[in-house]
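Entry 14. Ran structure prediction on the chain below.
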Amino acid sequence: MLTVHADSRGRALAVEGAWIADAGPRDRLLAAHPGARVRTWPGILTPGLVNPHGNELLEEAYHPDPREADELGAGPVTGDALAALAMDDARWGASVRRGVQRMLAHGTVRAACEELRNPAVRAALNRSAMAGTGRVGRPGGTPSLDPYACGLPVEFAPPRERHSAARFAVFDVRDEAELAERGAGSCVATVVDGRLVYRRR
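Output, structure tokens:
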């Protein structure tokens, strides 16, 4: 079924399956696709973000289960604290699933990684909604779930055009300047391959 995603500026994307079928002003898309399901979002539609620290966030950090928050906190566990944990393949897989979900909650649709050395991490990422993309060497900056907080230029996935993959995010801000100021924590929805994989409640 074709779905029109529209933002508060009147910009819209028509998504069919995993692909963008049309893009443009909301009124034109609704007229061109009568009977489409319509999702109207607060804020702005943008291409999804690329997080430059895929290895650091998925292979060199543990994302605690909420039930572990009293002991480990809510943020990623790294360094000596990670080394002190008993990590097996099952625990790594669960950590990657939670880490990916937290990245999706920041509008991220791709994680930039060198080759992942941990097979359990690699397998969990391959099964997830997050696409991996290559990188060479360490990117610098500070690893963060929010790409706007890592101290590097923010990179977006390829632009949202007709016949391109439907991978985009919605941020509850007025414009790109406010997004840069408030950061990716303002994400209200993330779509990957046409599927709504994150929606803020």
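The chain has two domains: 3-48+160-199, 50-149. Will compare against last week's run tomorrow.
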